[in-house]
Design brief:
Blueprint: H1 14-19, E1 21-22, E2 34-35, H2 51-56, E3 58-59, E4 69-72, E5 82-87, E6 98-104, H3 109-126, E7 131-134, E8 138-139, E9 151-158, E10 164-171, E11 180-186, H4 188-194
Antiparallel strand pairs: 1-2, 3-4, 4-5, 5-6, 6-11, 7-9, 8-9, 9-10, 10-11
Length: 203
């Protein structure tokens, strides 16, 4: 399979392949064998975008301590509505520490949950040695804002390296039209950087 393309042989495998293409000849146990739009953890973003394009699509204020920054992938995607990449702002190689692909589910969080379940089954059937956890529906940390009461439902697959694949549905109480599914590839270092205490939605 072309590392930057998507090939489908059977309809039953379409869902998995369009979200994650893998280059290993057999079942993989390394997050670097997974790609979103051809990209994975440890790659150089310069292989996919010019430095000028990276800078033009950068959102430097996302992480306030500026240890990491984020740029949107500026190429069109047949699968994702948005693709974003995290890297260190002073790294001249633009090493990728995280990749996230978003599929919109406007006013359709139940549709998001259904798609999430399908993806979870596909991943688990191929990579059942990864540690899977369904976190249930959790509260987003938006107390005191118009979006208070918003939730997200993550399912994670952790590798022995400390890297992680996550599939998460996000529901916004005040703006359900922006509900979405997010698929992320996260390096161990970046995962530890962004981890927060999860609060159950029924607390």
């Amino acid at each position: 399979m072309d590392s930057k393309g998507i090939t489908m042989k059977k309809l039953s495998t379409y869902l998995f392949l369009v979200l994650f293409s893998f280059s290993a000849p057999s079942f993989a146990d390394d997050i670097r064998d997974f790609q979103i739009e051809g990209m994975s953890v440890g790659d150089s973003l310069l292989d996919y975008m010019s430095e000028e394009e990276i800078k033009e699509n950068e959102f430097p204020g996302v992480y306030k301590d500026k240890k990491f920054t984020l740029s949107d992938y500026n190429k069109s995607s047949a699968i994702y509505d948005t693709v974003s990449i995290e890297y260190k702002p002073n790294d001249k190689k633009y090493t990728i520490y995280g990749v996230q692909g978003i599929i919109d589910f406007p006013n359709n969080i139940e549709g998001c949950y259904k798609k999430q379940d399908e993806i979870e089954k596909e991943i688990f059937s191929m990579f059942n040695e990864a540690k899977k956890k369904n976190w249930g529906i959790l509260v987003l940390h938006l107390k005191g804002t118009a979006a208070e009461g918003s939730t997200f439902k993550p399912i994670s697959f952790d590798f022995n390296t400390g890297d992680r694949i996550s599939i998460s549905c996000y529901h916004y109480s005040n703006r359900p039209q922006i509900d979405h599914l997010k698929i992320t590839l996260t390096s161990k270092e970046f995962k530890e950087y962004i981890e927060e205490v999860a609060v159950p939605a029924n607390n």
